[in-house]
Amino acid sequence: MSSEANPKSTTYAAAGVDVEAGDRAVELMKAAVSATHNSSVVGGMGGFAGLFDVSVLKDFERPLLASSTDGVGTKVAIAQAMDKHDTIGYDLVGMVVDDIIVCGARPLFMTDYIACGKVVAERIADIVRGIADACASAGVALVGGETAEHPGLLGVDEYDVAGAATGAVEASKLLGPEKVRAGDVLIGLPSSGIHSNGYSLVRHIIAEAGWGLDKHVSEFGRTLGEELLVPTHVYTGELAALFDALPEAVHSVSHVTGGGLSANVARVLPQGLVAKMSRASWEIPAVFNVLGDLGGVPQDDRERTWNLGVGMVLVVDAESVDGVLAASPGAWVLGDVAADDGTLATDPYYVQGAKGVDGGAAILQ
Asked: Which residue in 21, 36, 136, 345 has the most C-beta neighbors within 10 A?
């Protein structure tokens, strides 16, 4: 058999991949990325791999590496619809590095990955600048990343983002369920809004209601789209400072992400203990009530899906409560930890063994 050459000239650009646009994006983001680098970053940008000097670990008695990876979920659809891309990076960084700080580890460096249907240099640069700014706020070096153009798989205005980070902690300073005791106090840290979880429910609600993102909502004092794009609060910097200032105060920390408050708190408690949290201890931000009421979302589903204004929960030694509250703006006493005698297990809001962890229990009362 023989084959005939195609008389047409077929290039990578004709297939939908613009290498030059990718190069322009790198130039636009270079300054923001470089601003996250510290003396531990080796080689700067442009290598096949990011290099980070971990000589500091030689001073650890038993160093543990902590790793986390995540994305932003369908919140990117809101950013794409509004053509605003400079805040989604905060969502990505918060979802990744705040999963590392909760065990007492300090995030050291992060990498990102952006898949898109078409590289628009300014859009990619906006996304990465947001990632870099959030990394800088958390003291984390952004040491590498990848932008992949996938024509035919994603639309020209579609993209998704993901990231991964690595941190380290001295084994003796590891936070977790084994340090929690009955009598510990639960302290809540406020969220900045919905953060990055539950947006599939949000998008379903507003689609069913026929609300546009440009709709001004009086309870928000801004448009619906502006409210939904409020970036995730990144807690790493303030928690690192708290751990340094009060090294024995915090026993365990829960990052309230997918699954809601009770499920995420239960996973940082040991078997035999229950976190009893008071709904009356904080005011739920308007966005959750407006959307919940608009969609007729039952209370238990709201609590299983959204953070409802609680971004982090610290499990604190009772004698350290005043110090932790003073060091944590906006924090409040959410509840306490008690022995689980089984009397609460029949309550429909009781959660035990959540997120694949056969640990403690939690309940909102």
From this structure: 36
Sign of CA dihedral 286, 288, 291, 296: negative
Q: How many residues does the chain have?
A: 365
Which token pair is 325?
């509250």
Specify whether the backbone of 162 is left (phi greater than 0), alpha (psi in -120 to 50) or beta.
beta
Contact 202, 193 (CB under 8 A): no
DSSP letter (8 states) at residue 221:
T
**Residue 177 confidence (pLDDT) above 80:** yes
Task: State how far the alpha carbon of 307 is from the alpha carbons of 3, 30, 190, 232, in Å.
Answer: 61, 34, 9, 11
- Tens digit of pLDDT for each residue in 146-167? 899 999 999 999 999 999 999 9
Q: Is 94 exposed, middle or buried (0-12, 13-18, 19+ CB in 10 A)?
A: buried
Q: Which domains does the chain have, with CATH numbers?
A: 19-173 (3.30.1330.10), 177-364 (3.90.650.10)
pTM above 0.85, yes or no: yes
Q: Is the pLDDT of residue 237 over 90?
A: yes
In this structure, the number of other CB atoms found within 10 A of the CB of residue 1 comes to 2
